[in-house]
Design brief:
This protein is an alpha+beta fold. 29% of the residues lie in helices and 31% in strands. The longest helix has 18 residues.
Length: 322
């Protein structure tokens, strides 16, 4: 899925993590392409809008990191959405990525069920359901969607299934989330790695469009010596390396692929941004009938609307719509 961009300008290798960045890279000797994402303030802000239990926050943090990896394929316009729907205690996750780098997300969960859980694994939190990956490109008004089942898989494993079944691209995904101590207090961090085997004239990314490769092509590519070596190198990555603020993305990639040589491209910044606004909600409320608006009036005599993504509460006077 990742494509090579413009080579990054020559500069010393960063010693420390550059937060809220997506770093594309290539290991040309092995026909590998990929991206590394390191998230700090952005993911901490998203996970702090609600009092998420730690296990739910980690799940949402992984979803945010995965959305940044996959959504950053969009150059400057378009929208990517990752959404889960399932029958477990966390019955819905939604993360939006608006190009060139705006993220927002939230999780819906049953607090009582989560509190009673002894098994806090992703499989137990999700239950059975599906993961949908949707991309909308503004330049040609195209919309593509891929859907894979969630039946005991983590988000990384579900992404593997998607690329294997829909894209026919050998892929490796690793996600990590941790809460660390900073001078300002506890703070969430997240990171992710996406590695794919994209040989010249062979398997190519198709912007999440369902694959149409002949049967068996994916299996043949999975057995390629270059991909076997690349996957083995990527598998040595530890979770703590993805979230370590003292380890830069460049140094991380050097650790993994220095024997074969790794080239990095221009980084892309990401930030939290919510599309909600008073004007958009005002327009939405006007679309309801007078009776429907009366049914929304609270004990204080006003209509209150809370954004699911950022948690912002906006209050409206019903008389303004009459």
């Amino acid at each position: 899925m990742p494509r090579g961009g413009d080579p990054a300008p020559s500069r010393p290798v960063a010693l420390h993590s550059e937060d809220d960045r997506v770093l594309p890279f290539a290991v040309e000797a092995l026909d590998l392409r990929g991206r590394v994402v390191r998230l700090g303030p952005t993911v901490n802000s998203i996970l702090s809008h609600y009092a998420y239990p730690p296990q739910v926050a980690r799940l949402l943090g992984e979803a945010v990191a995965l959305a940044a990896l996959l959504g950053s394929i969009l150059e400057s316009h378009g929208r990517f959405q990752l959404q889960t729907r399932s029958d477990g205690p966390v019955d819905m996750l939604v993360v939006d990525y608006d190009a060139p780098g705006k993220l927002r997300g939230f999780a819906r969960f049953d607090a009582d069920q989560v509190a009673e859980m002894r098994d806090a694994s992703p499989a137990a939190l999700f239950g059975r359901g599906h993961l949908a990956l949707t991309i909308e490109r503004e330049e040609d008004a195209a919309r593509y969607q891929g859907v894979v089942p969630l039946e005991g898989e983590s988000l990384a494993e579900a992404a593997h299934i998607y690329f294997r079944q829909s894209e026919q691209i050998p892929s490796f995904v690793r996600l990590a989330v941790a809460e660390i101590v900073t001078p300002q207090g506890w703070s969430w961090r997240a990171g992710g790695l996406l590695l794919q085997y994209l040989p010249p004239g062979g398997a190519r990314a198709r912007d999440l469009h369902p694959g149409d490769a002949p049967e068996g092509v994916g299996e043949l590519l999975e057995e390629n010596d270059h991909w076997t070596e690349g996957q083995a190198l990527a598998a040595t990555l530890e979770d703590h390396e993805l979230v370590d603020p003292a380890l830069s993305g460049e140094r991380l990639l050097y650790r993994l692929f220095h024997e074969r040589g790794v080239k990095v491209f221009a980084e892309r910044t990401v930030e939290e941004f919510c599309r909600c606004s008073r004007e958009r909600i005002d327009k939405l409320l006007k679309s309801f009938s007078p009776q429907e608006r009366r049914d929304m009036i609270g004990d204080d005599g006003r209509i209150g609307v809370t954004c699911e993504f950022c948690g912002t509460l906006r209050s409206f006077d019903p008389a303004d719509f009459d």
